[in-house]
Design goal:
Length: 108
């Protein structure tokens, strides 16, 4: 399991239990990266996605949740077993890819 968080001020947080970067880490993303992420979310119309995508015939698969918080509130989209649309998969891949470009500092 891993978790990544990007903030509008450029702050980034990573935590994982079974990844190569185990534990809690902090880093920074550029303003350009943040703006691209926000633009991508708008293009992909993330606010129109259902709150949950799942398949009924699988009971032990990865689950990814994307949470977006802005002036209108908090929105979560849960994707179990890759059941979501390709746009959700694309956002997941971009967010993971961005994490690989961050210079992380161990926090704990």
């Amino acid at each position: 399991m891993w978790r990544v968080k990007y903030c509008s001020d450029g702050a980034a947080e990573w935590s994982a239990e079974y990844e190569p970067r185990v534990g809690r880490h902090v880093g920074m993303i550029s303003n350009k990266q943040w703006n691209r992420l926000v633009t991508l979310a708008a293009i992909l119309r993330i606010t129109d996605w259902r709150s949950e995508y799942a398949v009924s015939d699988v009971d032990d698969a990865p689950e990814i949740t994307i949470t977006i918080t802005d002036q209108s509130g908090r929105r979560e989209v849960r994707d179990y077993a890759g059941a979501g649309p390709v746009e959700l998969w694309a956002m997941q891949m971009v967010m993971r890819g961005m994490a690989e470009a961050v210079t992380w500092q161990r926090k704990d």
